[in-house]
Amino acid sequence: MKNILFPFFRNALLILFLNSLPGSAFAQTAAVIDASKYSNLQQAVDALPANGGIVSIPPGNYEISKPLLLKTENTRLQGSGGSTHLINKNTSGEPAIIVGLGKGQLFRLELSGFRISGNPKSGDGIYMEKVQELMITDMTIDHNGGHGINMKDCTENPRIANCNLNYNLKAGINIDGGHDIVVSGNQFEENQDALQIKDGFNLTMTGNNIDDHLRHGIVVENSYGSIISSNMIEECQGTAIILTAPATPANRFCYGITISANVIAHHLGGGIELNNAWGCSVSSNTFTLVHNFSILAGPGTGGITISGNNFSNSRGKLGARNEKNPFTFDVGSGVILKSATDITISGNFFGRLTTEAVKADESSKGILVSGNMMTELNQGAQVGKKAINLGGAKDVLVKDNLIRK
């Protein structure tokens, strides 16, 4: 009987033998670079061979005045946690690290396990251009004069996870062009916005904590097929989530996006704002202490399902009100429709709001409000103000809602 396994074992042994030959085509030439053996970080990075490797940066403070250029693919820049600290002293708006600029596409770049900080006059923490299949993990990126992470045309499979992005003067993460993007398990604190993305598709943004932002939480423009879920978004000066900013041209729009299972708490602007958005679902979110509106469906928006959400205030648990601090106001808001069409609002709870549950203008049409629970609305308003106020909106159906006073 012929031994069919013999050729397999023979070929495997041949490959192992060839790999062991020095200088052979099969020999591995990727490097492990110890940055402590070089006079500066740029020299250590430049020592990488063409097929990449690992640059290991030991603990220490590394002051830089011009960007560290990383231009070799299949490379990992690895620190030793927060004790590895790159300090950008540049005051002319340049980034701390530039990856890929001027080199065409680069693949499989990884940055992990160190801190980057800047100053109000420095640029981005990390600027990446045309870098594909990138990974940024376990980083602290703070106090930069630009974005924390800025990605331009990184179109294939970028992943950012387990990072702290804090106190950057622009966005924690800015994405301009990209596909199949994962942003997961990060902390965002007091940037201008947490995340901005335009012309980027199939975003998965889950499990992030977004707190105390000076403007908005998440801003998405010209995107489709994305999910924003299971994030904690608290105390933005502006709005927690925006799909297409107001006054954006009509050819810049969002569609096929799900916003689900987020906690949207204590925002001075609003909760979720939809402009030029089509075919999106807003479900199972909790809106508490949100000023002005919890959901605003604005011009150009249609085909939106709003279901299973909870809209409420603190029911007196917030504490004493300070007129000088709006964050102490025990408020709650509902859904506002402005020139929106084909909106389904069902199965939600609206409790102790300082506004109506649902309000529409006369330019809106095609509105179904059904099967919602509403209790103790319009707190502090005049007696008799409606829970559902659709004004002169056309083609509306309001039925089977339980409204308790």
Question: Keywords for this structure?
Answer:
mainly beta, 405 residues, Pectate Lyase C-like, 5% helix, elongated, 26-stranded parallel beta sheet, 14-stranded parallel beta sheet
In short:
This protein has 405 residues and is mainly beta. It is built from two helices and 45 strands.
Walk me through what this model shows.
By secondary structure, this protein is mainly beta. About 6% of the residues have low confidence. It starts with 5 loop residues before the first helix and ends with a strand. It folds into 2 domains: 162 residues, 3 Solenoid (Pectate Lyase C-like); 191 residues, Single-stranded right-handed beta-helix, Pectin lyase-like (Pectate Lyase C-like, 3 Solenoid), CATH 2.160.20.10. β1, α2 and β2 form a beta-alpha-beta unit. The strands form 4 sheets. It has a 26-stranded parallel sheet that branches. Helices cover 5% and strands 43% of the residues. The longest helix has 15 residues. It is built from 2 helices and 45 strands.
Strands, helices and their partners?
Blueprint: H1 6-20, E1 31-34, H2 41-46, E2 53-56, E3 60-64, E4 68-70, E5 75-78, E6 84-88, E7 97-99, E8 106-107, E9 109-112, E10 115-117, E11 126-129, E12 131-132, E13 135-137, E14 140-142, E15 149-152, E16 159-161, E17 164-166, E18 173-184, E19 187-189, E20 195-206, E21 209-211, E22 218-221, E23 223-224, E24 227-229, E25 232-234, E26 239-243, E27 254-255, E28 258-260, E29 263-265, E30 270-274, E31 277-278, E32 281-283, E33 286-288, E34 293-297, E35 302-307, E36 310-312, E37 335-337, E38 341-346, E39 349-351, E40 358-360, E41 365-370, E42 373-375, E43 388-389, E44 394-399, E45 402-404
Parallel strand pairs: 1-2, 2-5, 3-6, 4-7, 5-9, 6-10, 7-11, 8-12, 9-13, 10-14, 11-15, 13-16, 14-17, 15-18, 16-18, 17-19, 18-20, 19-21, 20-22, 20-24, 21-25, 22-26, 23-27, 24-28, 25-29, 26-30, 27-31, 28-32, 29-33, 30-34, 32-35, 33-36, 34-37, 35-38, 36-39, 37-40, 38-41, 39-42, 40-43, 41-44, ...
